[in-house]
Amino acid sequence: MTTVETDESFGGVTPDAARRLLLGAVQAFAERGFHATTTRDIAGRAGMSPAALYIHYKTKEELLFHISRVGHERSVAVLTEAAQSTGATRRAGGGAREESTGGSAPRLARAVRAFVRWHAEHHTTARVVQYELAALDAEHYEHIVALRRRSEEILRGVLEDGVATGEFDIADIRGTALAVMSLCIDVARWFSPEGRRTPDEIGALYADLALRMAGHRA
Amino acid sequence: MTTVETDESFGGVTPDAARRLLLGAVQAFAERGFHATTTRDIAGRAGMSPAALYIHYKTKEELLFHISRVGHERSVAVLTEAAQSTGATRRAGGGAREESTGGSAPRLARAVRAFVRWHAEHHTTARVVQYELAALDAEHYEHIVALRRRSEEILRGVLEDGVATGEFDIADIRGTALAVMSLCIDVARWFSPEGRRTPDEIGALYADLALRMAGHRA
DNA sequence: GTCTATAACAGGATAGAC
DNA sequence: GTCTATCCTGTTATAGAC
């Protein structure tokens, strides 16, 4: 949770050189975009010659895929954990669901807050993850799209639960879930550590906005 | 308002060749991004040789700037018009404002609906306008940022008015305005004409969501 | 205004020494 | 595993004929 984001997301990557390359690539891609970034730039940031890059990654695109994959996995994990009921959730007979501890409202609030925090704290990674997908090759792109669908489904599930229990009042669940996702994702585009709000403050504000969007009766 | 967006935004551009280049560039930039687009590609789409491009635009970046400028001007105009009171708005003594015809709630709804519609209907242009700014040179970038601030201020103004009249209940006006902008802008990222909703349906949904975010008492 | 041809150069990826 | 040197392709932008 450093403010000068050195992004611990890739802390566990094995050869030290590979990790440095990943970190350099994330920064370069976030600043300039994938296509405007040269392999010389990436290698330079990692303190290596351009050639050394190819020992660890077959192409520049593979580097992007690695970043995208790990980034998406992290953000899905953050969302999944936060969206869980604190106790267990059991399905009741007719398809409606009973909550044991956390109702849908706190689950939604926790999910949005955590997801937004992740996008703000890791805005460098998140920017690459969210806005450079088009540069992936077809196969890698499909892999990532599958991960993205998971996030959407998780969020939609929380909204569905809340409507079923009467906590939420939503006309268009799918559309609202998409809108809440939009809101969270867009944080990566504009967030700056120099801005007037901390990641957690934005998370708290957005959690409140999401509850309002869900028609939560305060 | 064609579904197969041929984007009338640039209909008035004077030499026919210049307009075709602009249109080709918008499509190419939206599909591949600025840096991944070649001048050959743009010229090809306009039915010209690469060299002909430089008669009409000094550089590829100038083409992007032109698109960005016109696009921003259009979207600001759309937002401004929609956010106006239908009658005149007069300031009352203490800084609070009286509405004559349209209250703040319908103004917010109209503004969001129109802004979202624009981003959906012109999603090709909008994508370039919103996501390729980083490729502009410093001077051009500043020009565009000034236009963007205008949009934010317009939206914030509507929220402030609504809070002053008691129509809205907002703790953090600036943050909420930013969030509503986010929501609208992000439409350009994911909208597809093949999707299940029309631009106007999305606009209507988002207008409702914005009212909820603003704490409008229905 | 548009074309063909080309200058001038940058960038991804590899070869081969160490 | 890393370096230096380099290949080779593709790119922006210009020159000069029509």
Automatic annotation (TrEMBL), chains A, B:
<feature type="DNA-binding region" description="H-T-H motif">
    <location>
        <begin position="38"/>
        <end position="57"/>
    </location>
</feature>
<protein>
    <submittedName>
        <fullName>TetR/AcrR family transcriptional regulator</fullName>
    </submittedName>
</protein>
<dbReference type="InterPro" id="IPR050109">
    <property type="entry name" value="HTH-type_TetR-like_transc_reg"/>
</dbReference>
<dbReference type="InterPro" id="IPR041490">
    <property type="entry name" value="KstR2_TetR_C"/>
</dbReference>
<dbReference type="GO" id="GO:0000976">
    <property type="term" value="F:transcription cis-regulatory region binding"/>
</dbReference>
<dbReference type="Pfam" id="PF00440">
    <property type="entry name" value="TetR_N"/>
</dbReference>
<dbReference type="Pfam" id="PF17932">
    <property type="entry name" value="TetR_C_24"/>
</dbReference>
<dbReference type="InterPro" id="IPR036271">
    <property type="entry name" value="Tet_transcr_reg_TetR-rel_C_sf"/>
</dbReference>
<feature type="domain" description="HTH tetR-type">
    <location>
        <begin position="15"/>
        <end position="75"/>
    </location>
</feature>
<dbReference type="InterPro" id="IPR001647">
    <property type="entry name" value="HTH_TetR"/>
</dbReference>
<dbReference type="InterPro" id="IPR009057">
    <property type="entry name" value="Homeodomain-like_sf"/>
</dbReference>
<keyword id="KW-0238">DNA-binding</keyword>
<dbReference type="GO" id="GO:0003700">
    <property type="term" value="F:DNA-binding transcription factor activity"/>
</dbReference>
